[in-house]
Design goal:
The chain is about 45% helix and about 25% strand. The protein is of the alpha/beta class and about 230 residues long. It has two domains: about 120 residues, Response regulator (Rossmann fold, 3-Layer(aba) Sandwich); about 100 residues, Winged helix-like DNA-binding domain superfamily/Winged helix DNA-binding domain (Arc Repressor Mutant, subunit A, Orthogonal Bundle). The strands form three sheets. The protein has a five-stranded parallel sheet with strand order 2-1-3-4-5, with helices on both faces. The chain has a four-stranded antiparallel sheet with strand order 6-7-8-9, covered by helices on one side. Helix 2 runs parallel beside helix 3 and helix 7 crosses helix 9. The radius of gyration is 18 Å and the shape is globular. The two termini are about 25 Å apart.
């Protein structure tokens, strides 16, 4: 992206907020700081941002409450939660609230940047569908529903291709299973989830030709398409 990515960082630990702001500023982001959810909500009402990065545990308004309110207002900004909380229930709650990714403290700054850039590209990718996606050594030809690697072509079913498109759009970030099910199946019930798991297994077999490509399961949440290295 040629223009700086405008990011709202909500973090009540002042030292961490300043370190992240300086580091991200040097890496192509324009960072605006907020100390808690109340301040962040005010800023969101006043300005337009590309991304929202928020801690969970904060005074006055926590991160979950902030995102829940934004989603209630119809705001679809990509959200990444930063938190020291590691229980699976917390991760699930974050995604159910409307978050798009979840990074536990302490974290590597490079991993944060990779995830932020993946989220920042999400809107543009959704608004302007790509005809192909690189996936490691693979080329995914969307309209032809083909995976091409070296001199081989692997034909995908329409549903396999639809699932893979959504994983590719957010490559490196977690794609919530319930969102996939509602969009592609129309209902996120248990039986449709079993069907989705079957298609994920098929895609893993197709992608096994490149050992650096993997689809990982985030227990109780969804899936992430990523490169191992």
């Amino acid at each position: 992206m040629s223009e700086k990515i405008k990011l709202l960082l909500v973090e009540d630990e002042q030292m961490l907020a300043e370190i992240l702001s300086d580091t991200l500023g040097d890496r192509g982001f324009e960072v605006c700081l907020a100390s808690d959810g109340v301040v962040a909500l005010e800023k969101m009402h006043q300005e337009t941002f590309d991304l929202l990065v928020t801690d969970v545990m904060m005074p006055r308004m926590d991160g979950f409450s902030l995102v829940r309110q934004l989603r209630k207002e119809g705001c679809r900004i990509p959200v990444l939660f930063l938190t020291a909380r590691s229980a699976t229930e917390d991760v699930v709650q974050g995604f159910e609230t409307g978050g798009n990714d979840f990074l536990r403290k302490p974290f590597a700054i490079d991993e944060l940047i990779v995830r932020l850039r993946a989220l920042a590209g999400r809107r543009a990718q959704e608004e302007e569908p790509q005809s192909s996606y690189p996936i490691g050594r693979f080329e995914f030809l969307v309209e032809r529903q083909l995976l091409r690697i070296d001199d081989r072509e692997i034909a995908l079913s329409a549903r396999e291709a639809a699932v893979l498109v959504r994983l590719c759009r957010q490559q490196g970030a977690t794609v919530e299973a319930s969102g996939l099910l509602r969009e592609l199946w129309g209902d996120d019930n248990f039986f449709n989830l079993r069907s989705l798991n079957v298609y994920i297994s098929r895609l893993r077999r197709h992608l096994a030709a490149d050992p650096e490509v993997e689809i990982i399961s985030i227990r109780g949440v969804g899936y992430r398409l990523r490169m191992k290295n």
